[in-house]
Write a structure and sequence with these properties.
Length: 294
């Protein structure tokens, strides 16, 4: 059998297909993608974004089981690696967001999460349930953590906060992820705790900066924002009520429709017809109909 891998960490004698590590730190995705090619052959760039499949019905049932209704924002305020990765102002951010907050993470993150207002599910979900709740969220605000990468793979808009680590090394691979990194002179240090004691890389990242990076600017729109044909599509899908919002990702605006009905209660993200489809937007069921048959 082929036993491939990077030389080092006493693996050399176990491998019969050996790769040499690049000098310095590089993007981890590229580091591992090289193992899919023969040694010395570079993978084709850009690398594809990861994608997690999820079932909208299961997403809805999971949210209902935990008593959560849309729209909501997920906070991932922990980081298993250590406190140097944890932004200290989630409590202040929660008070400035006009939406429901759901807190996710592992049991080791529970102490920090107890100080943050919201539905605290830290340590109370399985990984599958956490994926469902992230997939159904309007957005995610997260430290550099495993759940950051889950949010990227579900296509949920996110703001990712970096301090002691580097987004050049482990970025959230998603077109709707925004990264905040001050990159002060001592960052990245990759330490579990700030070795200098000032923690400036996170403390100087303000709530206002995070708010400004929030990917969703939501305002209520009139039902007339959708065409008659699109509204017919909503009714044909069994929707009995609608909440229609405008969302802005970077400089492009999209419609967001929350459907209420006997069979459906989903958030549908859809590109505005004049803009066309956008990479990373979720396409669920009648999404093409809502986009005017695109």
């Amino acid at each position: 059998p082929v036993r491939s891998g990077y030389a080092g960490e006493l693996r050399y004698g176990l491998l019969n297909l050996t790769y040499r590590k690049a000098t310095g730190r590089e993007a981890m995705a590229l580091h591992y993608a090289r193992l899919a090619e023969q040694p010395g052959i570079e993978p084709e760039l850009p690398l594809p974004f990861p994608s997690l499949n999820f079932d909208p019905e299961t997403v809805k049932k999971t949210a209902t089981r935990f008593g959560i209704s849309s729209p909501y924002t997920v906070f991932c305020s922990g980081a298993e690696y250590g406190p140097a990765k944890r932004w200290p102002f989630f409590h202040e951010l929660a008070s400035k967001l006009d939406c429901r907050i759901v807190l996710l993470g592992s049991l080791s993150d529970r102490k920090e999460a107890e100080q943050i207002p919201g539905t605290n599910l830290v340590g109370q979900t399985t990984l599958d349930e956490a994926i469902d709740l992230i997939a159904g969220a309007a957005m995610v605000v997260t430290n550099d953590s495993g759940l950051m990468h889950v949010a990227a793979a579900t296509g949920t808009p996110q703001v990712a906060l970096f301090g002691s680590s580097s987004p050049e090394h482990t970025p959230p691979m998603s077109p709707v992820a925004r990264v905040l990194w001050l990159k002060i002179e001592c960052s990245p240090c990759y330490a579990r705790e700030c070795p200098l004691g000032h923690f400036r890389c996170m403390r100087e990242l303000s709530v206002e900066q995070v708010l400004a990076a929030t990917p969703i600017r939501r305002v209520n729109l009139n039902l007339g924002a959708l065409s008659t044909e699109q509204l017919r599509g909503l009714r044909a899908a069994g929707a009995t009520g609608y909440n229609i919002y405008q969302e802005t990702y970077d400089r492009a605006s999209y419609a967001r429709v929350h459907l209420g009905g006997p069979k459906r209660d989903y958030d549908w993200r859809l590109a505005a017809p004049e803009r066309g489809a956008r990479a990373g937007m979720r396409r669920l069921g009648i999404g093409a109909l809502l986009r005017g048959g695109e």
